[in-house]
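Task 17 of the worksheet. Students: predict the tertiary structure of the chain below and write it out as structure tokens. Keep your answer in the requested format; marks are given for formatting as well as content.
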Amino acid sequence: MDPDGRRARRPDAGRVPSLVTVTGVVTAGVEAGCLLLGTYQLIGGPRELLRAGRTVRVTGVPRPDLLTTAQQGTPLVVSTAEPA
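Model answer:
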């Protein structure tokens, strides 16, 4: 609640997250199953393609509000992935 008794809102509340596309080499994170691409932690996507050492192009929605056990990078919910 804010001082006026109204429900406080985050400044970015109501904004639609935008898609980003990242190309690079997937690396393993500190936790089992954690995959990183640049500054992003990959959430979801085809695991047969998204493996450490592979060069890929991933499109997804950044979700900095999403908590993960690895706590590495900004979570990126994968929409599409392809070899690069």
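Marker's comment: Strands lie at 20-25, 27-28, 35-37, 40-43, 55-62, 74-83. The chain has a mean pLDDT of 88.
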